[in-house]
Design goal:
It is built from eight helices and six strands. The protein is an alpha+beta fold and 182 residues long. It starts with a helix and ends with a helix.
Length: 182
Amino acid sequence: MKRIFDIVMSFVAIIIFIIPALIISCLIIYFFKHPVLFTQSRIGENKKPFKILKFQTLVENKPTKLGHILRKSGLDELPQFINVLKGDMSVIGPRALTIEDIARLKWDREFYDFRWNVKPGISGLAQIYGGQHKKTSIFWDKQYIKSFGLSLDLKIILVSFTMNIFGKTKVRRMIFANGALK
């Protein structure tokens, strides 16, 4: 059921965002004259590596003005819907990490293996609740894996979309004030 949901949501997102994605692509080509997409090796379900797709936001390892806007709005992650269609990712799930991230966080131990029992997601509870600390992130990842389902995924999508429009800080204040996503 989740795979069907992912495919449907990805097609819907691609249809909705095709024009903005084309505009972003043209801007990247015109202003920066480098590839539109950035790929990076990430670790997916069952610790299988895959290449994640994002819009290019850096020039010489520094964010461009456009890149800053894309990152702040989350639009740099639009190409990840292709990863979802390919089956590498899910729309909702734990963040896809690099092997370096996993080593830095010390999540390469057996205790954390549960995290790789599901596909990584474009968004997830840790991203919504501001998992800036490894203990916070792993807590929310575990909560999601324990209770994921269509209803929770739809709530996370709604909150993620709202964050992209109104900003993470404002939406997080509303979530914490209202005890949302329970």
